[in-house]
Amino acid sequence: MRLLAILLALALAGCAHAPQGGKTQTFSLDEGQTGTLSNGGKITFANVVNESRCPTGVQCVWAGTATVRFRLVPASGEPAADVLAVLPGGIGKDDVANLLPVDTLGVSVTLAELVPYPEANKEPGRRRALVRVRPLAP
To answer: How confident is the model at residue 11, as a pLDDT?
Structure first.
């Protein structure tokens, strides 16, 4: 019984340090478009910095990545920041375990999708990013 109490206390202590942030917001943004966060901050899809995902119809050695620059303007009045979010190639937008969040300025920013997916010998045209933003606990 005493061992159970100790294990329970350790488990609860571990939970105290887990992120307790608010609700995740999902934005579908075209390049240059801005979304407003629930806390009053703003996030803008600035541009695609790198696109090395393996194009459709091509056999590649690796899946590649896409890197997108977001401009994050906090509601708190802190200076704005550029956030580089990376999307590993070969994964879907719901493959949460393999997405790469970036934690900064009180939020976690995750690039979940970048469309259109590259095609061999074809310009991508206008890009759209699916980005998830979750407030972090103070």
So the answer is: 39
Q: How far apart (Å, rounded) are the C-alpha atoms in residues 128 and 117?
A: 10
Distances (CA, A) of 78 to 22, 81, 87, 106, 125: 20, 9, 27, 11, 34
Average pLDDT over residues 107-131: 94
CA pair distance 78, 76, nearest whole angstrom = 6
Type of residue at 124 = P
Thinking of the domain 21-135, which architecture would CATH place it in? Sandwich (2.60)
The pTM assigned to this predicted structure is 0.79
pLDDT in tens, 16-74: 333 334 689 999 999 999 999 998 999 999 999 999 999 998 999 999 999 999 999 99
Indicate the helix (H) or strand (E) that contains 15. Answer: helix 2-16
User: Hey, what are 110's tokens?
Assistant: 């995750």
The DSSP line for 40-86 is: S-EEEEEEEEEE-SPPBT---SS--EEEEEEEEE-TTSPPPEEEEEE
